[in-house]
Design brief:
The complex is a heterodimer of chains A (122) and B (412). With 122 residues, chain A is an alpha+beta fold. Chain A contains three helices and six strands. The mean pLDDT of chain A is 88. Classes of the chains: A alpha+beta (122), B mainly alpha (412). The interface between A and B is medium-sized, with 23 and 43 residues. Chain B: This is RNA polymerase sigma factor (Sigma-70 family).
Chain lengths: 122, 412
């Protein structure tokens, strides 16, 4: 079963770290990724660039309109995410609970649609 | 040309026997695998030119053993060898009479038991079985399961490591344990089949066909254990299920339920083979869960339509299956049979009992069946609600699409 584990936050939150606590977070994140890779459950891991670099594209009457900033303004936005392939929802929750910021803001676990269909009742 | 094909097929058949034989004697999965790979490569180059040797398996074992010795001599390997001396001793103590050669089938079976070791997680068992017994490359297995090659490589090497540390896998399990271990092997083969059968997307040109692979491996196990009724039952179940594959999806990947499938598209050869196998095994072996599921599939396979299906027989078979192997999924399927025999009301009553099982709360299949039974009962609004709920609960993209389209069909 595949899940997307997403870490949300905002600039205020990410700017509030001390040098030591930021270094500790980076180290904890690296350890988390290493464990996940070694367990054979990591599909992909990506971090988002700064929210100031986000563009939203809309087409209006055939004309491309590009605006700056995340699709949803204000509040929190996606900081990074992991796609994992693991045995069960329970295992995904266990993985998410192991992420360094799970103790603070919480971490989102979202099941991904599978490309295969379970067999229909016969 | 035909020579090439037969060499390739022969090598595929020999590979697990040779690997099993080396591992049984030397106990080192990684090194043995490397050695066997090199021997297979040498054979694929030499045999088409020089002809197939009289004893192909013996030739491969000899060459692979020689390569293994070479690998051992390298400094890096020597260190690893020292760490596994104990395992080696255990392995050789367990396998007497090497020179005459133990029967081939013991080596393949032992390798299967090793790959499906109960200490491994199902994804690891599947990956290792396809790699070591099926002879697929890590890349092929990764593409079949739609994960990156590095992820699959990690799963395989982790599985090997965990077998090495448990240290108990390199010999035949004692007879008393065999039944349980065969059951794990069959479950792994069933999972491989199911992964292939339910796949509705992916590029067929690059995806190994997992149903074919599962059937091939189960056939091999059936040859090794011809008197095991559950092995025959699983093979029959796979063949009968696979026979419907041409009819179960639309060209654009949509799902077609059994009742609406064009039965002229079902594969008659597979049906004949599956029905033959299950008939034979039910007559001679103690009945088990795979045999019962195959028997149910056989009743469907022989019916010209849903209406003309022998539902009372299917209901009776589900009744036995519930006693042999109770579980909420069996009870759920039985509820469908109840509806077909005694009407949708009785089916819905049976379904309520299933839904009360806490393992089935929020399970999309319960809602999908409920929707279907409401539709049968002429209650389109209740059916539409249940299809919608089921669509929200499933994590399968094609299934969600199917359920949403059923709901939409019932819109006023």
């Amino acid at each position: 079963m595949r899940f997307k584990i997403s870490i949300y936050g905002n600039d205020a939150l990410w700017g509030s770290f001390t040098e030591e606590s930021f270094a500790a977070l980076i180290a904890a994140d690296a350890a988390f990724q290493r464990d996940l890779r070694e367990s054979g459950e990591l599909i992909s891991a990506e971090g988002m660039a700064d929210s100031g670099l986000v563009r939203v594209v809309r087409v209006r009457d055939g004309v491309r309109v590009v605006t700056m900033g995340p699709y949803l303004g204000g509040g929190e936005h996606l900081g990074s995410y992991f796609v994992v392939d693991c045995d069960s929802l329970e295992r995904a929750l266990e993985l998410a609970a192991g992420y360094p910021t799970a103790g603070g803001n919480g971490v989102e676990v979202w099941p991904l649609l599978e490309h295969s269909g379970t067999t229909l009742p016969d | 040309m035909s020579e090439d094909v037969s060499v390739e097929e022969l090598l595929r058949e020999c590979a697990p026997q040779v690997l099993g034989s080396l591992i049984r004697r030397h106990g080192q999965f990684d090194l043995c695998e490397d050695a066997v790979q090199e021997a297979l490569l040498a054979a694929s180059q030499q045999w088409p030119v020089e002809g197939i040797p009289g004893n192909p398996r013996g030739w491969l074992v000899t060459v692979a053993t020689r390569r293994l010795t070479d690998l051992w001599r390298s400094d890096d390997a020597r260190r690893r060898r020292e760490a596994t001396v104990a395992l080696q001793e255990e392995a050789s103590a367990a396998g007497p009479g090497e020179e005459g050669g133990a029967p081939d089938h013991d080596d393949t079976l032992m390798l299967l038991f090793l790959c499906c070791h109960p200490s491994l997680s199902p994804p690891s068992q599947i990956a290792l079985t396809l790699r070591a017994v099926g002879g697929l490359t890590t890349g092929e297995i990764a593409r079949a399961f739609l994960v990156p090659e590095s992820t699959m490589g990690q799963r395989i090497s982790r599985a090997k490591k965990s077998i090495k540390t448990s240290g108990t896998g390199f010999r035949m399990p004692p007879l008393a344990e065999r039944r349980k271990r065969v059951a794990v092997v069959l479950h792994v083969l069933y999972l491989i089949f199911n992964e292939g059968y339910t796949a509705t997307s992916g590029d067929d040109l690059v995806r190994v066909d997992l149903t074919d692979e599962a059937i091939r491996l189960t056939r091999a196990v059936h040859r090794l254990l011809p008197d095991d009724g559950e092995v025959a039952g699983l093979l029959a179940l796979m063949l009968l299920t696979e026979s419907r594959r041409p009819a179960r999806t639309t060209p654009d990947g949509g799902l077609v339920p059994l009742a609406e499938q064009d039965r002229s598209k079902w594969n008659a050869d597979r049906i004949a083979e599956g029905v033959g196998l299950i008939t034979e095994s039910l007559a001679h072996s103690a009945v088990g869960a795979y045999q019962l599921q195959a028997a149910i599939a056989a009743v469907h396979a022989e019916a010209p339509s849903t209406e003309e299906t022998d539902w009372p027989q299917i209901l009776a078979l589900y009744g036995i299956l519930e006693r042999v192997s109770p579980g909420p999924m069996v009870a759920l399927n039985r509820a469908v049979a109840v509806a077909m025999v005694d009407g949708p009301r009785k089916g819905l009553d049976a379904l309520d009992a299933v839904a009360a099982d806490e393992r089935m709360t929020e399970h999309h299949r319960v809602e999908a069946v409920r929707a279907h039974l409401h539709e049968m009962a002429g209650e389109p609004e209740a059916a539409r609600e249940s299809y919608r709920r089921a669509a929200k609960l499933t994590t399968s993209a094609p299934e969600r699409r199917y359920l949403e389209s059923r709901a939409a069909r019932l819109n006023p």
